């Protein structure tokens, strides 16, 4: 799977990491490097494996009252 492309957007004195794939917008940063790092971290989260649904715990089904 290809890594989603992230970009940065300048808004006034701040720069934000952005992700066009999911419309994520990172927090406003004054340092471009920090906004780029936010975007890279976000992109890595897209690549992270999904949690195993069987690992979640839930109550067992109830038997009908009878």
Q: Helical region count? A: 1
Largest sheet: 3 strands, antiparallel
How many strands?
3
- In the predicted model, the low-confidence regions spanning at least 5 consecutive residues are none
Which range does the strand content fall in? 15-25%
- The H/E string reads EEEH
Helicity, as a percent range: 10-25%
Mean of residue pLDDT values: 80
Helix/strand-derived category reads alpha+beta
Widest sheet, order of strands: 1-2-3
Give me the Rg, rounded: 19 Å
Distance between the termini: 51 Å
Backbone shape: elongated
Region (Disordered): 35-66
Biased composition (Basic and acidic residues): 35-49
Give a brief description.
Helix content is 24%, strand content 20%. The chain is α+β, with helices and mostly antiparallel strands.
Topology, element by element:
Elements: E1 7-11, E2 14-19, E3 24-25, H1 32-47
Biased composition (Basic and acidic residues): 35-49
Region (Disordered): 35-66
Would you mind describing this structure in some detail?
- With 66 residues, the protein is of the alpha+beta class.
- The chain has a domain at 7-48.
- It is built from one helix and three strands.
- It has one helix at residues 32-47; strands at 7-11, 14-19, 24-25.
- It has a three-stranded antiparallel beta sheet, with helices on one face.
- Strand 1 (7-11) and strand 2 (14-19) form a beta hairpin.
């Amino acid at each position: 799977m290809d890594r989603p492309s992230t970009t940065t957007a300048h808004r006034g004195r701040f720069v934000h990491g952005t992700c066009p794939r999911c419309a994520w917008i990172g927090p406003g940063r004054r340092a471009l490097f920090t906004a780029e790092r936010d975007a890279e971290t976000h992109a890595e989260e897209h690549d992270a494996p999904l949690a195993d649904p069987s690992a979640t715990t839930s109550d067992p089904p109830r038997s009908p009252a009878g």
